[in-house]
């Protein structure tokens, strides 16, 4: 399927949500679902669902519902999650170790294969069975283990330097937890996660002064 560059981030986020819901439905062995039923389950309007599905392919006929297997396959292919993405963590401190301790990423096809750090006291330790390796070995490890995602969990002062090292080593995706923006070439994709920003959003939603305003 040709990737449509005009698809917005909001649509992408909804597609990931459809995928999760469809996975659950799969387990219950339902084979067809209508946009109406899916919309009711997810609190999304059926017309928006049809619009989202139309944006990434043609896999439903008006009034016939969607075949769940096809839908899951097509959305999975579109999101690139029908294959394994091997990951490494840069910075095996508080956050790096927390991520390594979570088994959920591996379960959805994103296994963490190694943690990298410069602190000699950490090198050789295992977190959830994953070794903390000296940064010197980064290049060969990336090649030998077919790593395509680097997770940035280092402090601000070395974030861009570590980004450049990852890019030079051939990494094509960076999951950036460092809370600062990074520069990468066009062919390297970055998804930044910032817990504080998420908290600010929650705070805004709780802020009656603005959210409950009558128009
Ligand atoms: N995005 C968020 O919401 C969020 C939440 C928590 C932490 N963070 C960020 O994550 C980063 C890490 O936080 P933390 O609490 O885990 O810090 P930490 O100090 O516990 O861990 C950082 C680790 O990086 C290692 N390190 C330093 N330089 C390195 C290098 N050049 N290469 C490899 N490893 C190196 C250190 O030895 C240390 O083990 C910080 O930038 C922090 O701001 C972000």
Automatic annotation (TrEMBL):
GO terms for cellular component: cytoplasm. Residues 80-181 form the CoA-binding domain. The keyword DNA-binding applies. SUPFAM superfamilies: NAD(P)-binding Rossmann-fold domains (SSF51735), Winged helix' DNA-binding domain (SSF46785). Keywords: Cytoplasm, DNA-binding, NAD, Repressor, Transcription, Transcription regulation. NAD(+) binds at residues 91-96. GO terms for molecular function: DNA binding; DNA-binding transcription factor activity. Gene3D superfamilies: NAD(P)-binding Rossmann-like Domain (3.40.50.720), Winged helix-like DNA-binding domain superfamily/Winged helix DNA-binding domain (1.10.10.10). GO terms for biological process: negative regulation of DNA-templated transcription; response to redox state. It is found in: Cytoplasm. The keyword Metal-binding does not apply. It comes from the Bacteria. Its main location: cytoplasm. Residues 17-56 bind DNA. Belongs to the transcriptional regulatory Rex family. Homodimer. Modulates transcription in response to changes in cellular NADH/NAD(+) redox state. This is Redox-sensing transcriptional repressor Rex. It comes from Intestinibacter bartlettii. The lineage of its organism: Bacteria, Bacillati, Bacillota, Clostridia, Peptostreptococcales.
